[in-house]
């Protein structure tokens, strides 16, 4: 719905839709999903930095993220 709105509506119409969406259940769900994704990305970035700086071992960082050490090391390469 958001992609559709951005593609076909003018800025003032988008502002109106944004205001109405923020009050809707769908708007709240979209917001909560974004917050959760941001927290996950921030956690990953923080743990990668701690491992790179030598404050934490990759094994412990992976454990905190509930992923395998190999997955963590792969994600470190992507950061």
Write the layout of secondary structure elements.
Blueprint: H1 2-8, H2 11-22, H3 25-52, H4 58-65, H5 69-78
Helix pairs in contact: 2-3, 4-5
Task: Describe the 3D structure.
The protein is mostly helical and 79 residues long. It is elongated and about 50 Å long. The mean pLDDT is 86.
Give the gist of this structure.
The chain is mostly helical and 79 residues long. 82% of the residues lie in helices and 0% in strands.
Task: Note the main attributes of this structure.
79 residues; mainly alpha
Q: What does the main sheet amount to?
A: none
Residue share in helix: over 70%
Name the shape in a single word: elongated
Rounded to an integer in angstroms, the radius of gyration calculated over CA atoms is 19 Å
- The helix/strand series, from N terminus to C terminus, equals HHHHH
Give average pLDDT, whole number: 86
Q: Classify the beta-strand content into a percent band.
A: under 5%
Span of the ends, CA to CA: 30 Å
Number of helices: 5
Given as residue ranges, the uncertain stretches (5+ residues, pLDDT < 50) are: none
Class by alpha and beta content: mainly alpha
Strand count:
0
């Amino acid at each position: 719905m958001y992609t559709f709105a951005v593609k076909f509506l003018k800025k003032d119409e988008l502002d109106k839709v944004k205001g109405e969406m923020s009050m809707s259940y769908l708007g709240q769900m979209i917001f909560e999903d974004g917050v959760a994704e941001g927290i996950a990305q921030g956690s990953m970035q923080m743990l990668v930095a701690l491992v790179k700086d030598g404050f934490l071992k990759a094994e412990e960082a992976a454990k905190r993220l509930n992923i395998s050490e190999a997955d963590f090391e792969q994600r470190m390469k992507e950061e």
